Amino acid sequence: MEARNGAYIVSSVRTAVGKAKRGMLANVRPETMGAIAVEAAIGRVDGLENDAIDDVLIGCAMPEGPQGLNMGRIIAQGAGLPDHVPGATINRFCSSGLQTIVMGAQAIMAGHVDIVVAGGAESMSQVPMSGFYFQPDPDLVRDNPDVYISMGNTAENVAERYGVSREDQDRFALQSHLRAIDAIQAGRFEDEIVPLPVENVMYQDGKP
User: Fold this and answer.
1) What is the number of other CB atoms lying within 10 angstroms of the CB of residue 50?
2) Which fold has domain 30-130?
3) 100, 154, 175, 177: which is deepest, by most CB within 10 A?
4) In 3D, which of 64, 63, 118, 50 has the Cα closest to residue 92?
5) Residue among 129, 133, 105 nearest 118 (CA)
6) How far is CA 37 from CA 21, 80, 121, 153, 188, in A?
7) pTM of the model
8) Where are the domains of the chain?
9) What are phi and psi of 162, to 5 degrees?
10) What is the C-alpha to C-alpha distance for residues 70 and 57, in angstroms, rounded to an integer?
11) What's the first-to-final CA gap in the chain, in angstroms?
12) How far apart, in whole angstroms, are the C-alpha atoms of residue 147 and residue 137?
């Protein structure tokens, strides 16, 4: 068996996270955020030229509306990559962005490509859960309704199956928030968060 190529993450960035529908990023388009992140990730690799990118893979859980069509290709164009650089949009719901990293690594290890930009983009402010027009297959709803089970119900099922109490969940959530506050105050996220210009901020209810 031939040895596989090595796949390495050489640059990693993200934008800040806002509060859905009422945050500072509520009116920033997801393709804009994705393009800024892609451009910044490439820019942090010394000597890497845009035309050396073999593919751009972008994960998106709800690929419609402003994050519809082939957002991977749209983001590649928005990031200033040449026309010959392709893009693809991957949907595996909550693990969509992680899936692109896996697929990029697989392509490199198989020897098909050398350099892949992989990540995810999503705006919960601009595209609602289940999309704008939820239209499930009536046959699946009748025969196997769990195909469309929500994350809330999934969490309840996991808690019941594995005996996770509400107290345990609250304790874990508190610990997570405390660790996040500590990391923010210590400046541990500063290097990975890229600046995102925000103009004309207006909440969806019209109030600033």
Assistant:
1) 15
2) Peroxisomal Thiolase; Chain A, domain 1 (3.40.47)
3) 100
4) 63
5) 105
6) 21, 12, 9, 33, 18
7) 0.89
8) 30-130
9) -105, 10
10) 10
11) 62
12) 10
Rounded to the nearest 5 degrees, what angle is found at the Cα of 24, between the Cα atoms of 186 and 44?
Answer: 55
How far apart (Å, rounded) are the C-alpha atoms in residues 54 and 73? 12
Q: In what order do the strands lie in the sheet with 55-59?
A: 87-90, 55-59, 116-120
CB atoms within 10 A of CB 171: 11
What is the pLDDT tens value at each position of the chain, 208 positions in all?
455 789 999 999 999 988 888 888 888 999 999 999 999 999 999 999 999 999 999 999 999 999 999 999 999 999 999 999 999 999 999 999 999 999 999 999 999 999 999 999 999 999 998 899 999 999 999 999 999 998 889 999 999 999 999 999 999 999 999 999 999 999 999 999 999 888 755 555 555 4
At 47, the amino acid letter reads G
Alpha helices in the chain (DSSP H): 30-43, 71-78, 96-109, 138-143, 151-162, 166-185
